[in-house]
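Assemble and predict.
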Amino acid sequence: MTDFESFRKQALDELLDWLRIPSISTLPEHKADMIRAAEYVRTALERAGLAKTSLVDRGGHPLVYAEWLGAPGKPTLLLYGHYDVQPPDPLEEWVSPPFEPQIRNGNIYARGATDDKGQTWILVKAVEWLMRRDGRLPVNVRFLIEGEEECGGEAISRYVSEKPPELAADAAVICDSEMFAPGLPSICTGLRGIVYGELHVEGARQDLHSGVYGGVAPNPLMAIAEILTALKNRDGRILIPGFYDRVVEPAPAEKEAWARLPFDEKEYLEKEIGAPELTGEPGYSVFERTWARPTLEVHGIRGGFTGEGAKTVIPARAVAKISMRLVPEQRPEEAVEQLRAAIAAAKPRGVRAEFRLLHGAPASLVDPENLFVKEAALALEEIFGRKTVFIRSGGSIPIVGLFNACLGIPSVLMGFGLPDDNLHSPNEKFHVPNFFAGIEAVVRYFERLGA
Amino acid sequence: MTDFESFRKQALDELLDWLRIPSISTLPEHKADMIRAAEYVRTALERAGLAKTSLVDRGGHPLVYAEWLGAPGKPTLLLYGHYDVQPPDPLEEWVSPPFEPQIRNGNIYARGATDDKGQTWILVKAVEWLMRRDGRLPVNVRFLIEGEEECGGEAISRYVSEKPPELAADAAVICDSEMFAPGLPSICTGLRGIVYGELHVEGARQDLHSGVYGGVAPNPLMAIAEILTALKNRDGRILIPGFYDRVVEPAPAEKEAWARLPFDEKEYLEKEIGAPELTGEPGYSVFERTWARPTLEVHGIRGGFTGEGAKTVIPARAVAKISMRLVPEQRPEEAVEQLRAAIAAAKPRGVRAEFRLLHGAPASLVDPENLFVKEAALALEEIFGRKTVFIRSGGSIPIVGLFNACLGIPSVLMGFGLPDDNLHSPNEKFHVPNFFAGIEAVVRYFERLGA
């Protein structure tokens, strides 16, 4: 095991180097960093002994591809991860800088630590360890690592839609979700979909003085407030006509399993949220509200003056970043149409309003009875010593739906993040023991599938 | 008159130099520019032959003081202006840079051109011209020029509240308002008051991922939308309990005079506003809505992500810049208390909300029958050749109320701006012929008062 221990240490050091590259896919100024981050993982796969390692160009940020197909008759797994990360702002809230990874109290603190470089590195290193130890793998693998998970995933969407022969596989394995609780192995069987876009509102031709024109000039910021409150009420109920028509409730057995999960709502509120109280639709549990109910959120409002001090401006235009999380059977295109109609109906007089779609993806469900899911659950149980739970995630991994629709394969979501990993927030972290256990669990999973 | 023409030309050149100093009082990084701008006008007053020119320190940005008291038995005028300007953003909408003044089509384009460097310069140059021509003035004058008009006016407020002997005067003269229409001399007899502050809303301890927490986490941006729409309805009616209790309607005669002003609402909408339609309270004319009715506006909303692309964040906190314009008899302190109570009542669950006051000032009215107002109207008529109209302004010049309350003097608001001067907006301008006519009108005014 000494060998494995020094391997683990090196794997960690390499992960820290990868985390130092600020591969923020949404910001054009990081285009070169994106290529560096892609090349970093491609080189690692090459060193691990995989063939055909390459950067695949389908527009946007490159995809990383690699394969090892030396186990005829054995299953083929499509190993997915992403090397892009969320923007790190607000920077001032980070204890250590987001792209200078620091290990404190057994956690790696860095943007992308858990989402998703740390978890992608688990797959890379599990394969490398098996290759190093055995000179071969017990299963066939194809890596597909994208750089646009945080910004719409257009390149991978184009590539997978082509259904290229090099993506033929029996199942996809994705490490981009979280464990329900520390030490509790978890497989995610459901993800919400998403529609993300911008609400553009225009009033006057140019910014106006609120003294001279206040009382007659339309205010696009106020119009955004009026539209938002017309779209969702204070109970979190979305008021868009037809929006809930296709929503499918979880099966009673699934809801009962959720009710048995170790969960203390008060502790969740205090430790994870830290707000005066939880919000959302009455009559639905926290799991239902975050995993199985659609949402509408506003992420930012641009326009007017937000600097220090006072400026009495009525802005000419304003933009709100808006997303809706979708649940199984809701259709992104239809939801966008419904949203647009609701905005047109909610728009106050004096302004023009337009919703511009940035990206969308449907929700997805995976059958826990599927062989690849079951074997993953058993591998996790072996390493963590506890029974694997089946949970859902409120987040969106659009690729799961795409793999199903285009490649006809299920996705196994083995997540090693923790609920308090601050993904998309300041001080994102990844628990080092989970990184190591993740490598072992994936190794064991491949061994079981190849047996 | 050749002499006056070369004087005018030099006055214009000097104004352009003054406009080159980016004296933005709300932005701390312009502190040195503020002192440069103050010193620029102090030096000009010294050169004009005034005594006791000085920068008065009452905290914040300096006040400029100067006096000439060589006309015993004649009235003493307190000449007010401000050398600070609004922030220039959005910069990309300026045709020429805000602090590189350019003359196009007979207008000076620059931040501060009309508000208020150009108009302050009228007072400075009228005095200088009289001193140069006659070696003396027909009246006594004291200049008081501040650098915080756009950011709350705390220094001048402290200074005037001390009721210092050097501010003793019979009336104040302020050039910081606008003519009702090109060529139509106008005196402003009413100003709205203001309350300006920030609504701070806090939800979770830190930014959260909208996938993982959407459905249970409070969203401070949405809370701001909910609070704003609870404070004002779509008709512009403010819903804050008690808010309208003290509002005094204009006298029927004043409303009738307004109705006789040359005004085409369609042209106003198209040329000045440029929005699909006007907004505001039904049943009130444009003049009533902008001059005599209180308002509530949001000027900017900070929080979350507003950059390019998509970030699925539920921000931990958000801030809205909010102001209310007040009309005669409304009390700023009471309005703030009413606003705070309404915010507390409107706040959705899951968040904390707090209104932080930045500054406030009451509305003010001036009696058009006052001698100093009447003589100003006649002086304007002499220069412009048309009967002076009495109008109000929807803006706030808090110093007017302070001069009345602390010094017991009325303020004569002779404005030379034009309605389309874009004050507080990109491409702020000042009509050069109005600058020259303004100097002549003030000279004539002083001559009439000294006769």
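The domain at 193-248+285-361 of chain B is CATH 3.30.70.360 (Alpha-Beta Plaits).
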